[in-house]
Write a structure and sequence with these properties.
Elements lengths: L3 E10 L12 H15 L5 E3 L6 H9 L5 H5 L5 E4 L5 E4 L5 E7 L4 H15 L7 E2 L3 E2 L11 E8 L1 H5 L3 H9 L2 E5 L11 E6 L7 H29 L1 H17 L5 H16 L11 H7 L2 H8 L5 H19 L1
Antiparallel strand pairs: 1-5, 1-8, 2-3, 3-4, 4-5, 6-7, 8-10, 9-10
Helix pairs in contact: 2-11, 8-9, 8-12
């Protein structure tokens, strides 16, 4: 049963003697981009000029989780370097250089290995901001030290249903954050949570990865236990939740992103517990991604108001439900 949806590793680096991006001058920012470009281009990377990309193109990069809102805020002096099947390089986001890699499985080790190979190409050619006591320096002091931030995205509908606040307390007590994917609303849309260390000072990169793997294993065990308990002890309520979501997604004429994600969370829980059956395989991450606000507009090729998005989303969902069930 799918619990882990995605894992990601971000490596933060800053250039010595330059202000952080929040206070950097355009000239210094350009110089950092040129430093990165001189190293990344021979490795097969291409840069994207964000200032001259369309709103839809930027939206696609954002929805694909390649660029971040912080990078878009600095669009006048930020850049991104891409190479197929390789880590992304963000320049002048919250920090001068962020190297990141994600995959739709719990495999932090491979992502870290790929990132460190790229970091090795930069090290020695760029004079990193480093302190003998604190390690690599970051704009957020909590991200200093090894400056490697691993995170895991998890689907936890059963833990959410049983409101197991003790699970969340234990996670935080171990020095980790557990956040919903919509940080602005402070909610776990679709019962999806992201778990990452509060700080990256005090342990090595491998230690942080190993500790997060152990923590995730315990969460997975608890989630699967609670799914079985839900099925065995509350089968009628479970079927009711799944059936209501099935009915809404199959018939709604207008639906917003938040409601869509909650109902698909219920549908996929129903699929994994054999409450309902599908005619073909369907992936949770890709499904909700295709119906998020950004991808709805990318598909249409233009920016839409909220009502138009919600109508188009409902139309597309009804088509999918007919195809799959």
């Amino acid at each position: 049963m799918a619990v882990v949806l995605n894992s990601k590793v971000r490596l933060v680096r800053n250039v010595r003697d330059f202000n952080f991006p929040s206070r950097i001058s355009n000239g210094d920012a350009k110089e950092i981009i040129e430093k990165v470009e001189s190293i990344a281009t021979p490795l097969g990377y291409s840069s994207i000029d964000l200032k001259n990309t369309t709103s839809i193109e930027k939206l696609k990069l954002f929805e694909d989780e390649i660029i971040t809102g912080e990078l878009l805020k600095n669009i006048e002096f930020a850049s991104v370097f891409l190479k197929e099947d390789s880590p992304e390089i963000l320049v002048n986001e919250t920090d001068h250089i962020v190297i990141q890699k994600s995959r739709n499985e719990l495999n932090l080790e491979t992502s870290f290995y790929e990132i460190m190979k790229l970091d090795d190409a930069f090290d020695g050619k760029i004079n990193y901001a480093f302190d003998d006591e604190f390690g690599y320096l970051a704009s957020n002091p909590l991200n200093s030290g090894c400056a490697m931030i691993p995170s895991v995205m998890m689907h936890l509908p059963a833990i959410s249903y049983y409101n197991l606040t003790d699970v969340f307390k234990k996670i935080r007590a171990k020095g980790y954050k557990i956040e919903g994917i919509n940080k602005e609303k402070k909610k776990a849309l679709g019962n999806i949570y992201i778990i990452s260390p509060v700080r990256t000072i005090g342990f090595t990169e491998k230690d942080y990865i190993n500790r997060l793997n152990v923590l995730c294993a315990s969460i997975i065990t608890k989630e699967l236990e609670k799914r079985q308990e839900f099925y065995l002890e509350n089968i009628i309520e479970l079927k009711d939740i799944v059936s209501r979501s099935y009915g809404i997604l199959s018939n709604a004429r207008i639906i917003d992103e938040e409601e869509m994600m909650q109902h698909f969370s219920n549908i996929f829980l129903g699929l994994e517990l054999n409450i309902i059956k599908a005619n073909r395989e369907i992936d949770f991450v890709e499904t909700i991604k295709n119906f998020k606000n950004g991808h709805i507009q990318i598909e249409r090729g233009s920016l839409l108001d909220s009502k138009s998005r919600n109508i188009l989303r409902a139309n597309n969902i009804r088509k999918l439900m007919k195809e799959v069930f």
